Amino acid sequence: MRRTLVGLLTPLLLLSACTVGPDYRRPEVTLPAAYRGPDVGAPAAAASFGDLAWWQLFEDPDLQDLIRTALVANYDLRVAVTRILQAQSQVTITRSQQFPTVNAQADAPYTGYVGNSRPESIAAQTFTPEAGITLGWELDLWGKFRRATEGARAQLLASEDFREGVVITLIAQVAQAYFDLRTLDLDLEISKRTVTSRQQSVDLVSARLEGGVAGILDLQQAETLLYGATKSIPDIERQIEQTENFISILLGKDPGPIKRGRPITQQLAPPVVPAGLPSELLTRRPDVRQAEQQLVAANAQIGVAKAQLFPQVTISGFAGVGGTVISGQTFGPLGIFSALPVITLPIFNAGALSAGVDLADAQTQEAVLRYQQTILQALREVSDGLVEIRKRQEFRVQQELLTKTLADASQVAQLRYEGGVSSYLEVLDTERQYFQAELDLTVAQRDELKGIVGLYRALGGGWQAEPTASLPPPTQKATGATPVPARRP
Q1: N or C: where does the chain have the smaller number of CB atoms within 10 Å of the terminal CB?
Q2: What is the mean pLDDT of residues 401-426?
Q3: 0.90 exceeded by pTM
């Protein structure tokens, strides 16, 4: 019997090397040779601004500390890490279906007969205990489970790419919020300095009014300037506290004050490293890699669906020992061995299995389109980032010239008023323009910095882990620490 069973299983095992369904091939993608518009700071080259590690780009030690804290405690990142753990478990679950399931089993059935109608050949009481190993195994003849494992592994890689995308977004959010905060700090400093200067002007006009040199309108105009500056302070202080609260949440902390470092004017310089080649986005940007792995997973499901069209072979078996006790008399122990191969051939299912193949194929086509769309979106974001840095820089230079001109004009208007050459209306107009120009200049400096961060993010920079970083182990799930798995090669 055993030879017969081996003879039956041998060709089936040989068939298990067959795998139906298409093997994955990366879709054809047409990429431009360079990004739109002139590159920033240097000609096109193999190196890219996106290859810089985040701690090389952000040199402010206090900003670096904020980013490190966020990379450990941010809740979005912690959620992304749990998705990786889920995907790892799913790979193990899916792969286990390729192998037999073996369980230990013990039975002690008892049978009793009462009445005069029982067969005479059967004793009044029967007790048959047995114990052994049960086996269940569906042979993977057509690669159904291998394709499913292929898809599960692709989903695992996609979850790792998702985590890296969260890292990039988180670093950009912390940096940009920090620049917002330092800009507001400078706005508050400008406003307070302006209030001090305008209070001195009010005192001067009041003295001139008492001396009969100035009129009441001059004093009212001076007070208008003063109150225009004082009213801005509460609003700026509100924005500062709200920005601190936002950064605190990014750090996974309760709302509170944020430590400051370098002023906004000493944070970043326009990148001198070029953007690089568009083809590098396919491997550097996590969202592009994630979209491709989702395509790999969808492609593997075609094989899973096609395997359902073919015969399925399941083997169940039992090996163990047992005995029989009949009316107090023992028979045994006895060796017990059984095997039951079952072949299932689909005949009629109202087109469900064929529709499953069509569904998997359509889902794969959708994944192809999403992959291509993600690449186009990446190209657009980089091109947008390049033009933003270039134009933001040009705007900031012109705003600096305007601010300097208005500063000189304000001084001249004040001297002309004090000399009695012009009215205080001239001072009012130039002072108001100068104050607004100073605030606009801080915004221009901030927007240029945020544009640099935006380009860095668009190029896929920022997911690199520090070589000396000490990350908590995965067991620290409830303490607020987030294990960051190493990026695959």
Answers
A1: C
A2: 90
A3: no
